[in-house]
């Protein structure tokens, strides 16, 4: 069964001086302020579309990797995934780098890297972001 998740943003003002509030409607987890300076300069307690993409990508990748490892008979005990989304004003998102460190009993480094590459290629968020270069560093703890 398909699911749909919803968030919305209320924005006031122009791009450079305005600000917005992102609301997570489906989960109800809260409202988060956004602004151009938070996107192109320092966050100063505000989020950005790139940080939201990083959160979505790190979560999706972790789920895909956990599923793949478990299906191959090597369930992980822990995965720590970081997604770094790079934004260049005037150009856009120029790349995403995933870094994952895993604890997977009985699996060697080569097997873990292979599983991580598969998760990178096949997680739904990676597939949605195919217009962006996605790189990966994977290692066992």
Question: In whole angstroms, how far apart are the ends?
Answer: 36 Å
Name the poorly predicted regions.
none
Q: Tell me the Rg in angstroms.
A: 17 Å
Cross-sheet strand order for the largest sheet: 1-2-3
Q: How would you spell out the order of helices and strands?
A: EEEHHEEHHE
Which structural class fits the helix and strand makeup? alpha+beta
Residues in helices, as a percent range:
25-40%
**Which descriptor suits the 3D outline?**
elongated
Defining key terms:
34% strand, 3-stranded mixed beta sheet, 3-stranded antiparallel beta sheet, 141 residues, alpha+beta, single chain
Describe the protein's topology.
Elements lengths: L6 E6 L6 E6 L5 E6 H5 L8 H23 L6 E11 L3 E12 L5 H14 L1 H5 L5 E7 L1
Parallel strand pairs: 5-6
Antiparallel strand pairs: 1-2, 2-3, 4-5
Short description:
The chain is an alpha+beta fold. The chain is built from 4 helices and 6 strands. The chain has helices at about 35-40, 50-70, 110-120, 125-130; strands at about 5-10, 20-25, 30-35, 80-90, 90-105, 135-140.
What does this molecule look like?
By secondary structure, this protein is α+β, with helices and mostly antiparallel strands. It has helices at residues 36-40, 49-71, 109-122, 124-128; strands spanning 7-12, 19-24, 30-35, 78-88, 92-103, 134-140. The strands form 2 sheets. Strands 1-2-3 form a 3-stranded antiparallel sheet. A 3-stranded mixed sheet has the order 4-5-6. Helix 2 packs across helix 3 (109-122).
């Amino acid at each position: 069964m398909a699911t749909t998740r919803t968030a919305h943003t209320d924005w006031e003002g122009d791009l450079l001086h305005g600000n917005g509030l992102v609301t997570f409607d489906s989960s109800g987890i809260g409202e988060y302020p956004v602004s151009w300076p938070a996107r192109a300069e320092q966050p100063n307690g505000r989020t950005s579309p790139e940080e939201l993409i990083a959160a979505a990508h790190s979560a999706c990748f972790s789920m895909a990797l956990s599923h793949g490892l478990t299906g191959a008979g090597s369930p992980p005990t822990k995965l720590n995934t970081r997604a770094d989304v790079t934004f260049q004003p005037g150009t856009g998102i120029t790349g995403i780098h995933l870094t994952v460190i895993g604890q997977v009993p009985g699996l060697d480094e080569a097997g873990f890297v292979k599983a991580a590459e598969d998760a990178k290629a096949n997680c739904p968020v990676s597939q949605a972001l195919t217009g962006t270069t996605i790189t990966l560093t994977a290692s066992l703890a």
